[in-house]
Amino acid sequence: MAQFFTIALRNFLKGPTTDPYPFGETYTPENYRGIIAYSPELCIGCGTCEYVCPSGAIKLRHHESGMNFSYWLSTCCHCGNCGYYCPTDAVFNSNDFHTARAQSEKYDATINDDIASVQCSRCDAMIPRAVDALLARAYDEITDTVRHRASLCPDCRRLEQFERMYL
Amino acid sequence: MSETYRVPVGPIHIALEEPVYFKVKVHGESVEDVDILSGFVHRGMEALVLRRNFLQNMIITERTCSLCSNNHPFTYIMAVEKIAGVRIPPRAEYLRVIADEVKRAASHLFNVSMLAHLVGFHSLMTQTMETREVLQDVKESIWGNRMDLGANTIGGVKYDLDKEQIRYLIKQLNLIKKPIRELTNIYSNNRIVRARTEGVGLLPKEDAVRLGVVGPTARGSGVNNDIRAIYPYVVYDKLNFEVILEDGCDVRARALVRLREVFQAIDLVEQCLRGLPDGPVTTPGLPRIPEGEGVARTEAPRGELFFYVKSNGTDKPERMKWRVPTYLNWEALKVMMPGNKIADISVIFNSIDPCISCTER
Prior knowledge:
Number of domains of chain A: 2
Strand order of the largest sheet of chain A: 2-3-5
Helix content of chain B: 40-55%
Strand order of the largest sheet of chain B: 1-2-3
Shape of chain A: elongated
CATH topology of chain B: Cytochrome-c3 Hydrogenase, chain B
Structural class of chain A: alpha+beta
CATH topology of the largest domain in chain A: Alpha-Beta Plaits
Strand content of chain A: 15-25%
Radius of gyration of chain B: 21 Å
Shape of chain B: globular
Strand content of chain B: 5-15%
Largest interface: A-B, 26 and 33 residues
Helix content of chain A: 25-40%
Order of helices and strands of chain A: HEHEEHEEEEHHH
CATH class of chain B: Mainly Alpha
Largest sheet of chain A: 3 strands, antiparallel
Oligomer: heterodimer
Structural class of chain B: alpha+beta
Distance between the termini of chain A: 94 Å
Radius of gyration of chain A: 24 Å
Largest sheet of chain B: 3 strands, antiparallel
Order of helices and strands of chain B: EEEHHHHHEEHHHHHHEEEHHHH
Number of strands of chain A: 7
Number of helices of chain A: 6
Mean pLDDT of chain A: 85
CATH superfamily of chain B: Cytochrome-c3 Hydrogenase, chain B
Number of helices of chain B: 15
């Protein structure tokens, strides 16, 4: 018993080991996998996050003016798969752990954003955007030529390449 | 009293952590025979994984169980990598061992603290949990979650350690060495703990071999079946460690194996941090899984974990089967329990480190 007594005495002198949360500050690691954060301006609508999400919390839907990204907190298991596989870092885990909601707010804990399509710079076809983060994965340097080609729809790009090479 | 009667323990019982049903035949206060019934937390995971793709299954297998949550995706991914013929970078191999050994230390500390709880020594339980809390903070700070690390991915690992994190990890591991040494001393020498664990739940070596028990349950009976040593995977063949064996064959021996393995786990993490090579942590690009079959086995905190994966060239597995350590270990309860008191049932049950949600999936 004496062995434990020294530990008990040491604990007594050390004071409480718990944090006074929610009345005071608590420690939240920077890497903590909390609620998903989403930046629509970086999203290209590739659907990787939806493909790797094991719990079906992320859904991407096509509509007339582009795509829609939706996320529901109550189905999310905070595994971080979406953020890990996202090619442009548009979706990632924030370190916000405040997931408790009142029952009446259960269906409000969502992210719902439109991923706007852009118009092809040569014709009026609507194409998904090519953001810089994506171009940086494909090219060493993002030149004006690269940017110009990324602004074209596949048909116009083919046409322009043909004109450049053979006309 | 010389009458023989039956006592039900479970499926929901104050001494059990998870639902399982023991039909105990007792004579007076001594257990004569025990019958185990299970199936109360079946979640249909083996059917569920067939409806998800290989990348989603990394997460679903992790949710099989919380305490050995790193080993399930680890073993599954090893089986998938065998099918795909993926060789992971050397740095990823070391990082996999680091994640696994931190989880092992935390899992073993949890089990021995449950032992203290069941023998009624609650201050020892809280103190063990308090020590384990340091490891929980490590997991939360480096991997982002207290239980589900999400460390592994097909082709490598999802995380990397920078200099600062390595320093933090070493500091925290050094912090718990002394408390665990103190606790080990109490677990092995304290009068109350000894009275409740010594000579309780005997599993002789012959029976351990006959029943094919695995993990610390077997090593407490002197049977060496540590997969890390006899069938090394990732970098365990390059690391220097001795398999921990005890020959007490009782609850105490199994607890001591676990406590000594905590030190071993800390030592293995330190060896890995010293030998950590530079380089990438994953193979580039998303993996493509061809048609084929693969098996893998690893040493989970509870014992040998075995995965079988069959793929048919699509992005979903055709069949997946995993065999978890508790499935082999709970047969041994029929040897351990007879002859002991009713009050010892939960202590003996805890000594195999049962994981019902793993076993029933």
